[in-house]
Specification:
By secondary structure, this protein is an alpha+beta fold. 39% of the residues lie in helices and 19% in strands.
């Protein structure tokens, strides 16, 4: 049997050497979202195909070209979710979250699947951080959603992002706009791609989102939605801009933004970068006041956004953003002989219980090989236990950065180890901080105070 050595096209492996970056990004997103009052929701990776046909829209590229749909063993059509909002709305309705305190604020981190041509920043399997807010119709909520995304980017140190906003109005004011689009694109009918010819009657706004160079060029001179907004939608959009301005958020009004999913109404926005190629939209979202009703619920105001983690990581690496140092081994305990190895396992377990990252030899290497391994994994301290150390109850602890060696008791080793690190810090020595010991907290304040 041949060895399968390649991942499926359009997917990525996150290796241990880089996983700490994604973990850091996710941790930042979770903390900021929760500071805004959002709480996590987890939904299945696949749903009934009809869910996405009704919510995302049958005329969208996602539904027409990109969904991974298949028939299960029960004869049901199911789809790997191409985005997170539809599943969140379904869960909101199914579990009666509308009966709880409003607004309902939820966030999620979920894998998504779209059959697209893979390129930098665009994968067939990707991970999306999303937030959804149900039950708040005011411009203040639109602005808060944008502020949350902006705060994530600021915290991560991401530069040169442009916030582009637009209003695509409500169903009422869009009627005149849709007719104007039909009239305009009908005059260019023979030039449109086959997909857009099919969209012309059902949803001409989708033509504005077409990736075809010819359709994109034709769309540049198409009517603009901002010229067709009703008074309520215009006032809503103006207030969104005032909230953003009051919070010192720079933005650009881009009347061509319609977003790629049919459920959006009124405010739509994108955070865009020009540093990662054609797939420059890092975060996109807006308001979707009609979606809950479309899926069988009562009319409910809602808004949110989706943010692709892989695309965000690509941008951060392109900008050489800083990441926290990945967690490494605080102490590697070498051993000579079975009794010493058993003692090393006990010491390591005690340290781990106190939050210290500790390892010992589980391979049966020589001491020399054990120390080479400790160096390769970046152990901050090492110690070797043999028969003499077991007999005396003491061992030599080595600081791998400075080379300094200290005699330490094996009895109550965890306390002795932490005390030694504290003493070195108090003496002003170049002590290597260990991740399981908060020196400032243990010393009761500023180390230099």
């Amino acid at each position: 049997m041949a060895l399968i050595t390649n991942a499926i096209k359009g997917t990525l492996d996150t290796l241990p050497s880089g996983s700490y970056k994604i973990q850091y990004i996710e941790a930042v997103m979770r903390e900021i979202a929760e500071n805004y009052g959002f709480r996590e929701m987890r939904t299945p990776v696949f749903e009934h195909t009809e869910l996405f046909q009704r919510s995302v829209g049958e005329t969208t590229d996602v539904v027409q070209k990109e969904m991974y749909s298949f028939e299960d063993k029960g004869g049901r059509s199911v789809t790997l979710k191409p985005e997170g909002t539809a599943g969140a709305v379904r869960a909101y309705l199914e579990h009666g979250l509308f009966n709880e305190a409003m607004p309902q604020k939820i966030y999620y981190i979920t894998p998504c699947y779209r059959y697209e041509k893979p390129q930098a920043g665009r994968l067939r399997e990707f991970h999306q951080f999303g937030i959804e807010c149900f039950g708040a119709a005011t411009p203040a909520q639109d602005a808060e959603v944008i502020l949350l995304g902006n705060e994530i980017f600021n915290y991560l140190g991401i530069n040169n992002l442009t916030l582009e906003i637009n209003s695509i109005g409500c169903p009422e004011c869009r009627k005149k706009f849709q007719q104007a689009l039909k009239d305009y694109f009908n005059s260019h009918y023979d030039e449109l791609c086959d997909t857009c010819k099919g969209r012309l009657e059902k949803n001409p706004m989708r033509i504005l989102d077409c990736k075809s160079p010819i359709c994109s060029e034709i769309g540049k001179d198409a009517p603009k939605i901002l010229d067709y907004l009703c008074d309520d939608c215009r006032e809503h959009f103006e207030l969104v801009k005032k909230y953003l301005t009051a919070n010192n958020i720079e933005f650009k009004v881009n009347p061509t933004i319609v977003r790629g999913l049919d459920y959006y109404t009124r405010t739509v926005f994108e955070f865009v970068s020009n540093e990662i190629g054609a797939q420059g939209t890092v975060c996109g979202g807006g308001r979707y006041d009609g979606l809950v009703e479309e899926m069988g619920g009562k009319p409910t105001a809602a808004c949110g956004f989706g943010l692709g983690l892989e695309r965000l990581l690509l941008l951060m690496e392109t900008q050489k953003s800083e990441f926290p140092t990945p967690k490494s081994c605080d102490l590697f305990i070498g051993s000579m002989g079975q009794d010493a190895n058993i003692r090393a396992s006990v010491i390591a377990a005690d340290l781990r219980n106190e939050g210290v990252s500790a390892q010992f030899d589980t391979v049966g290497r020589s001491v020399k090989a054990q120390m080479k391994y400790a160096d390769k994994i970046g152990a901050l301290y090492t110690m070797v236990i043999g028969d003499s150390e077991l007999e005396s109850g003491r061992a030599s602890l080595k600081n791998m950065k400075t080379g300094e060696q200290s005699d330490i008791s094996l009895e109550d080793f965890t306390d002795s180890f932490q005390s030694m690190i504290i003493k070195q810090a108090m003496d002003g020595l170049d002590a290597t901080p260990i991740q399981g010991v908060d020196l400032t907290e243990l010393l009761g304040g500023d180390l230099n105070g």
